[in-house]
Amino acid sequence: MKLTESLQNINKIPELRQRILYTLLLLIIYRIGSHITLPGVDASAISGASQTHASDLFGLFDLFVGGAFARASIFSLGIMPYISSAIIVQLLGAVTPYFQKLQKEGEEGRQKINQYTRYGTLLVASLQAWGVSVSLASPASFGRVVVPDPGFFFMFSTVLILTASTLFIMWLGEKITESGIGNGISLIIMIGILAGFPQSLIAEIQSVSLGSKNWIVEAVILALMVVIVAAVVVLTVGTRRIPVQHAKRVVGRKMYGGGTQYIPMRVNTAGVMPIIFAQSIMFLPSTFLSFFPESEIMQNVANVFAYDSWWYAVMFGSMIVFFTYFYTAIAFNPKEVADTMRRQGGFIPGVRPGKSTADFIDNILTRITLPGAISLAFIAVLPTFLTKFANVTPGFAQFFGGTSLLIIVGVGLDTLQQIESHLLMRHYDGFMKSGKVRGRR
């Protein structure tokens, strides 16, 4: 009843209805493109060959692009080159004075940074497209011939199509963010992940029906799934509120201030970005190693970066912890918060304004970020342990742990919050009338 009422409220707001329909239309276009096979590739051969890579990094990359990689479609690279480029630009912003200056120039600086990110996307997509074309043309990569007529024309056309398609997906994401609902780039990643859920669920059910798994064990695994999903939601919406009091001010005949407000500091301030950043970095070695499909040494190195290896889990978890702190430092600046409080006449009880306030906020932020970062890393590497010890299929394991669940929950809550904000601004109840959606009081 509550869901029906909320959907009716959405339909009563023309702007919100148009934004949602516009978003759905662009996402449908993205899904259609993921089913168009590259010219010169044998679709049936690539489909059969991809099954042998379902549990390695090939299968993980394919998960993020909604099966487009396994089909060798024109959208095989997805939006990951854009994410990789954004990581590089943000790292430059932390160490390069020029990019630090751009970050402080407001809207004009943001536009320049976005432009550099687009240029970087073009470069990264070209390199990854070259790696994909080399891998497709080599029978050793898949154990069979997937390109009947490899040659210069195939290599050139594949690089051109994959690069142009990545830029088109980037444009779709920006248009969704601008004229749709939610963050377009994140929604594209999420819809690609969700596209593989029905097939993974069917495979898990078939394994139980065929007797390869005990249904009691499967029930325990599903119960664990519910617990993990709840834990991820709590981690995503969890906050530490810092009380802020405002001194009373008399302006004319009226008195202002004197009330108490709160600074909501999230346990997971960085959101899903550390996961996406770390995952993009982990894709780079496999891209480089794909240039040498017939080299035994390179393939031995590739085994170190295999998705189900312990080294992969350790490196992946470590990078998540690093990027959590890194992105939190970019997204939340205690000094700016302290300066804003001082200008507005606010103060934290028992703490001096200025530097002491900034140090106090930074200390709390550091302490609450540590358990958040460790929790993110644990959930991200959980599918590796479940695949090894619980005999869970790799595809299904991604949906109750790991990157997939974190992205789905984070992006879903962000999108839900934006829809609820539109409803509340027009005095309608949102989806979570009795609950607590992030950012709602």
UniProtKB/TrEMBL annotation:
Transmembrane segments: 20-38, 79-99, 119-140, 152-172, 184-203, 215-239, 271-291, 311-333, 368-390, 396-416
Biological processes, Gene Ontology terms: intracellular protein transmembrane transport; protein targeting; protein transport by the Sec complex
Coiled-coil annotated residue ranges, if any: none
Origin superkingdom: Bacteria
Any one of the GO CC terms: plasma membrane
First-listed, main subcellular location of the protein, grouped into a coarse class: membrane
The entry's keywords: Cell membrane, Membrane, Protein transport, Translocation, Transmembrane, Transmembrane helix, Transport
Stated family: Belongs to the SecY/SEC61-alpha family.
Protein name in the entry: Protein translocase subunit SecY
Species for this entry: Prosthecochloris marina
Lineage, broadest ranks: Bacteria, Pseudomonadati, Chlorobiota, Chlorobiia, Chlorobiales
